[in-house]
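Example for tutorial group B:
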């Protein structure tokens, strides 16, 4: 699914975040130490190689809602933006912290003149954030920021499962 809002293409696809060769920056759903882990973070570090962690080590630790940017290393992307999402039921207020992840990632993208960015569903894996709530927070945050950008032309959500894809598509349709 694709929608154009304020001259920015927003799209939702099912796929692998590490295989988005047409995107300038991918977002890592990171852990606080910015170290290789499971899920999205593990996949990104595996493809990017050990030099990614070497660059990340000096930027850690992150607090929920924060984002930092590194090179993409062996990823097919120039940049990797690392966000620490909230642990649902632990980090409060979850919705503000999750919104901060997306907001801070987009601000880093704009500051670095990035024209395209791909997001996973931050915090919805082991951090336990309900996918419906996460999709709504993410899309509302992004849509609310689009009019202020000069460089950003494409925002892609890369969802692991068909179920997550459908939820993001439905949420996007309801918002625009």
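The residue assignment follows.
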């Amino acid at each position: 699914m694709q929608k154009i809002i304020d001259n920015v293409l927003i799209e939702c696809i099912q796929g692998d975040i590490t295989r988005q060769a047409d995107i300038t920056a991918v977002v890592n759903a990171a852990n606080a130490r910015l170290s290789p882990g499971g899920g999205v973070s593990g996949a990104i570090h595996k493809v990017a190689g050990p030099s990614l962690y070497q660059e990340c080590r000096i930027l850690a630790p992150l607090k929920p809602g924060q984002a930092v940017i590194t090179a993409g290393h062996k990823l097919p992307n120039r940049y990797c933006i690392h966000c620490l999402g909230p642990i649902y039921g632990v980090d409060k207020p979850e919705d503000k912290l999750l919104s901060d992840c997306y907001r801070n990632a987009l601000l880093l993208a704009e500051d670095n003149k990035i024209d395209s960015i791909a997001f996973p569903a931050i915090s919805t894996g082991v951090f336990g954030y309900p996918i419906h709530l996460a999709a709504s927070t993410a899309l509302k945050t992004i849509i609310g920021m689009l009019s202020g950008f000069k460089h950003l032309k494409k925002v892609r959500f890369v969802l692991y499962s068909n179920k997550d894809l459908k939820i993001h598509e439905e949420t996007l349709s309801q918002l625009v």
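The chain has five helices and seven strands. Compare this with the pattern of hydrophobic and polar residues in the output above.
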